[in-house]
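Appendix B. Chain record.
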Amino acid sequence: MIRAASPYVFPGKYADRPRENLSPLLKRVRAKAGLPETFRPLRGLRHSFASWPASSGKVSSMNRKSSSPTPARR
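Structure tokens predicted for this chain:
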């Protein structure tokens, strides 16, 4: 499927609108990738986005806003 250019990462049926519900899409991706039901794709992407620069040495711990890390709250 070829999509028109869209400003959205997950475009909807029409390129000028975002997808309204990502759950069905993410469930299909998770199933096709053979990942467990407990895997949360968006959290995994966020973690990867933050980890890759840090592990490459391009981001130092001094570049963070806070000098002491705080755990994510739910």
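Further analysis of this model is presented in Appendix C.
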